[in-house]
Amino acid sequence: MLRTTPTGGAGRGTAGGDRLVSIGSVLNQLRDEFPEVTISKIRFLEAEGLVEPRRTPSGYRKFSPEDVERLAQVLRMQRDHYLPLKVIREHLDAQARGEELPLRPQGTPGDPDAPGAEAGPDRPTASRVGRSVLLEAAEVTEAELDAWESYGLITPAADGDYDVESVTVAKLVAHMGRFGLEPRHLRAMKAAADREAGLVEQVVAPLRRHRNPQTRAHAEATTKELADLSVRLHAALVQTALGVRLR
User: Fold this and answer.
1) Most buried of 101, 113, 183, 237 (most Cβ within 10 A)?
2) Domain of 157?
3) Are residues 27 and 100 in the same domain?
């Protein structure tokens, strides 16, 4: 069961503001009931507007108990009723207004005729999204996405789908473009990210090859922790460099 206090709704008041937690803590709370949930899935739901965590001055996500319960509601609706995210958002918005919308009858995952079924190549999963979903979620055009792919900023898988993090990448690249930064300017950031990923892989590769399943599981946890530390270090280094240059 979810280790958080039920709120009975999706309110986002200040109550519990002193109990804000990181995205890693949210993942730990949700995994008892939703063992397949990932940090990428939580970030994807945020990108889709299903949850709006607070941000620290340095940009880190901080989730309230209400945010965690809202995420749990979203995941339950997906698991138990196979509802698309648009319908889930309508239900949560209705709850926030004190209304109740009837849930569609439960369908069968993979059944194209099931009400609200999310089967199909362009439906979001726990870790992958189709091209049309990425375009809609990031609010970008085909031409923009083609340009970013040509510069290696976003790379589709062999089947044409994308990691859900690509939605975040697309949004950030589009936002930076409003400041005049073109895809060619961002290749250095992509190259730096690839080098950081290579360093993480060097650390965890021996663990992944181990025969012990627990050790291999530890490799995945280590990968996530090192990735988070890498992002935080990168942000701190950029802030430090800018601070020095602006003095």
Assistant:
1) 183
2) 121-181
3) yes
